[in-house]
Amino acid sequence: YTEAWDADKKTIHVMPDTPTILLAKANAANVSHKLYVQAWEEAKKKGYDMRADAIPIRSAKASRDIASDYKYKETHEKEKGHYIGCRTAQEDPKLSWAARAMMLQNDRIYRKAYHDSKAQVHIPVDAMSVQAAKECQTLVSDIDYRQYLHQWTCLPDQNDVIHARKAYDLQSDNVYKSDLEWLRGIGWLTEGSVDVVKAKKAQELLNERLYRTRPDEMKFTSITDTPDVVQAKINALQMSDV
């Protein structure tokens, strides 16, 4: 089918001066990177002559010196250690002002007068505030508040004593729980308790294995001569590539 086309491709000849060919050559020259940088490459081969005192060179050197970190800090390094001004730190107003500000902001110096005078307090013993404090101390004192009475002697068979003992026994937590003391230290198995039985019943209800029957466990034998099976065999033979 393509034999004639392949044979015609070899016999076609285009003239080199046709408009299409000339346009393609002009486009190739416009997009050529080699022709684009050809003038720059030829200029580089010719070299250049630039004197050391030329304006661009001197401008570049001045800019470099300005931007240089060494030149920027040269004056500071020379003046370091040559302090010119007051002879002492107390005569310098800035240092004195800084020291004064530090003293005002210092919490220890701020509280120094208070700590020096807080232990030098002298109060007369008959002052009204002291007397009032003593009376308040007497009122709230636990020693003076509790005054134990003398020991009473009661007969053990009095009705009020017997009634009090019964009331104490009813309110006593030890007597109330005395019937459970024999259970302390005895082991107990949870098997058969209400919670365990309830959990087992819930597990049986949620068990997937007991709820569903697996297909491979069901006894089923397919009949080979049913209409559906026969029709499926005929369709398989018709659709078979073999």
Automatic annotation (TrEMBL):
Which keywords accompany this UniProt record?
Answer: Actin-binding, Repeat
Provide any one GO MF term from the record.
actin filament binding
Q: Which domain of life is it from?
A: Eukaryota
For this entry, list what GO says about its biological process.
Answer: cardiac muscle thin filament assembly
GO cellular component assignments: Z disc
Recorded hits in InterPro entries, A to Z, give: NEBU/NEBL, Nebulin-like, Nebulin_repeat
This chain belongs to which protein, by name? NEBU protein
Tell me which species this is from: Alca torda (Razorbill)
- Gene name tied to this protein: Neb_1
